[in-house]
DNA sequence: GATTAAGCGAACGATATGTTCACTATTGCA
DNA sequence: TGCAATAGTGAACATATCGTTCGCTTAATC
């Protein structure tokens, strides 16, 4: 039987917020230097200048701290991508790329610390679902797609994330607009040929 | 100062081989049940019925065992993909998909245990290099590519690995040939449009 | 300046790691 | 068959990290 969720013990004091911020920053800094899974709680609290018991008063464990950072990131991504909602774009590629550049430091840390995978998985799943719906709603009359829509959706998100990773690995010398241009050039002809949908 | 590499202590006795096989199989079995990083050495040796000191006589640690399994896998992949070498195909997609299906058990374990990422990274890097060279050698005269070749190469491998992951996540109901057909339908129009190369 | 919430850090039990060593089991060769 | 040589065994050990506890200190707020 799991005890009461210690996360509920998070208070809203200014000091608390400051402490959490210090811990998050320490984890990010450490991930730039070493793999996430080799980082110890001791290293985090030393770097943050925070007592051991304070750490555990705020987070269940190291994983909880990471998830908390990621959740904040994904929330901010959602703010960029969702509000226009229906019809504004089929694929929010440029919005996503701009968001990534804006939060470059954190994404870079996640990559260097080899903790980016769950984030990509989440993005992949959400985008894929969203795109599949949009595609289905725009299918022209006439011949059925020659490749199933879920495969096409997976394809589109796969391309976007592959370009994103390539961009991030190379420390993002190109602009988001440049990347988005590559993305559309690569994706448009295939989607047109297989489904008839114009992106 | 690191001591002498204990990996050199690996003997070539039949018993040794059997032991290593047992340990590898135990790790794979455990990865089907839980994340790689939550698995303990104790669990591995219990599952394999092997003594603690024997484990450390063969491997430096858990990571070393995993790397050893992955290395064997990648070697076998190379056997499938390299021999024809130059000119046989531009992208060894069907060969790769067949290889994956052949070693389904291990790939599935790597996915479930969340240890597939380094394997994909390796594949991505190798394929991408190979494909870029092949593309460069087949560029038609006339206008330069509208998307840089490294980006196109990254795109192609990204698509292949995205489809591969999708396939694997769904437990591979389709045949490798079917997947390869999807892959080519999706990739061909874009590569033609951006580089003029016919795949 | 008294009250209250947050942070501190030493100490603890629990668990995992990697090593050592005296002992046993298996293999293959004389 | 018997005997080295090699491989495996497992208890015991030192070490490290984890997550918790608790008495104390610090710093906001009224």
SSE layout and pairings?
The structure is a homodimer of 199-residue chains.
Chain A: H1 14-31, H2 41-48, H3 52-58, H4 62-81, H5 93-102, H6 104-112, H7 117-138, H8 149-169, H9 176-195
Helix pairs in contact in A: 1-2, 1-6, 4-5, 5-9, 7-8, 8-9
The first copy, chain A, binds a DNA duplex (30 and 30 nucleotides) through helix 1 and helix 3.
Structure overview:
The first copy, chain A, has 199 residues and is mainly α. Helices cover 68% and strands 0% of the residues of chain A. Chain A is built from 9 helices and no strands. The first copy, chain A, has helices at residues 14-31, 41-48, 52-58, 62-81, 93-102, 104-112, 117-138, 149-169, 176-195. Chain A is elongated, with a radius of gyration of 20 Å. Chain A starts with 13 loop residues before the first helix and ends with a helix. The model of chain A is unreliable at 1-11 (pLDDT under 50). At the A-B interface, helix 8 and helix 9 of A face helix 8 and helix 9 of B. The structure holds a DNA duplex (30 and 30 nucleotides).
């Amino acid at each position: 039987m799991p005890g009461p969720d210690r996360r509920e013990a998070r208070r809203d004091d200014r000091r608390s917020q400051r402490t959490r911020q210090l811990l998050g920053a320490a984890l990010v800094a450490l991930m730039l230097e070493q793999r996430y899974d080799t980082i110890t709680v001791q290293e985090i609290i030393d770097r943050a200048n925070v007592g051991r018991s304070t750490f555990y008063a705020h987070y269940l464990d190291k994983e909880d701290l990471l998830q908390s950072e990621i959740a904040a990131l994904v929330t901010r991504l959602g703010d960029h991508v969702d509000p226009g909602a229906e019809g504004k774009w089929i694929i929010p590629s440029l919005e996503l790329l701009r968001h990534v550049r804006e939060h470059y430091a954190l994404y870079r840390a996640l990559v260097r610390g080899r903790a980016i995978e769950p984030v990509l998985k989440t993005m992949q799943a959400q985008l894929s679902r969203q795109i599949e719906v949009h595609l289905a709603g725009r299918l022209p009359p006439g011949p059925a797609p020659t490749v199933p829509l879920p495969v096409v959706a997976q394809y589109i998100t796969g391309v976007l994330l592959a370009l994103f990773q390539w961009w991030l690995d190379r420390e993002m010398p190109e602009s988001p607009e440049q990347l988005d241009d590559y993305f559309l050039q690569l994706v448009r002809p295939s989607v047109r040929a297989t489904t008839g949908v114009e992106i």
